[in-house]
User: Fold SMP-30/Gluconolactonase/LRE-like region domain-containing protein from Favolaschia claudopus.
Amino acid sequence: MRVLTPLLALASAAVAIFPTKLLYQSPTGLFIENIAVRPNSKLLLTSVVSPTLHTFDPTIVNSTFDEVVTFPNATGLTGIAEYRRDVYAVVASILDVEALSEKPGSVVIWSVDLTSGVPKIRAAACFPATITPVLVNGLTAVPGNPDIVLAAESSLGGVYEINLRTGTIRRKFQDVLMGPTPPTPLGINGLHVHNGFLYFTNSVRGALYRIPLRGGTIETLGDVSNFGGIGAALYDDFAIDSEGRVWVALNTGALQLFHRARNGTWVQETVVGDPAGSPVLVGPTSGAFGREGPGGRRTQSLYVTSSSGQLVAVDTSHRIQ
Ligand SMILES: *[C@@H]1O[C@H](CO)[C@@H](O)[C@H](O)[C@H]1NC(C)=O
Ligand SMILES: *[C@@H]1O[C@H](CO)[C@@H](O)[C@H](O)[C@H]1NC(C)=O
Ligand SMILES: *[C@@H]1O[C@H](CO)[C@@H](O)[C@H](O)[C@H]1NC(C)=O
Assistant:
């Protein structure tokens, strides 16, 4: 999630290296925080200002946001991850968006099973009230481990392993590079497992990192120093494509693409919008690739959510510049 700062003046030189399409603009400007894509192509969307999990069908014209389920004793939702086929973990809490904190003891990781016609929900784990301040933020599934999700805790800076079958929660990683820097309590934010690595962003440090899932040294893949500086909450959640490229939402108004050059170094470029602000992406927060067909295989459409209520599709299959 992002820091609520006044939006920067819109830059005139908005970039679009990949084609984009505005799929939806929430009429109330609903703050969309995170996204998962179901095997049947439909999107699941969380909002930090609503306890309702919404769905949106990107395959039909003029689709709307519809309720899947509303969680009790919560004001907002953060991370979502598909941990078994069409079964999702969702973080619900009593959330203070301006203070960037959740009420200790209110953070529940729900399991949402959509494999039958009727959503089945279960409070799978409760985050310990002793961890305070607390902001359980991004979530990721762990391929090959169908009971487990990993959660980013942004305010102290750690990664927690949550067993959705037993309800057990344990800290897996803690590092200064996962922690925030004062005064903004927003360190590690998005996280995803890919090919044995845990990739994660740290918002106030403005950087993307990865660490081997089994533990080891944290590698810095890039930061925002060449893209508008460091100091505000910037890098939010992201998606990793089949080639291992990382598409990161930059809150100020851009999508940043990280990829490995032939010489092995990671390079970063702005591929949609502008780090100085852009009407194409106003407050982007996260992204996920589309799915289609009977197997629900991934497409090259990247759906980007935003804190201004935009849902934007980016066609990553070909460059237009
Ligand atoms: C979608 O909405 C637009 C604008 O309200 C309208 O002009 C158009 O006819 C709608 N299309 C469909 C297929 O409903
Ligand atoms: C909501 O919170 C109240 C008060 O703590 C509690 O009694 C109730 O069981 C909770 N409801 C659910 C569905 O967890
Ligand atoms: C590696 O390649 C990238 C992209 O071509 C370039 O920007 C960078 O300077 C190179 N690094 C080294 C150490 O040669």
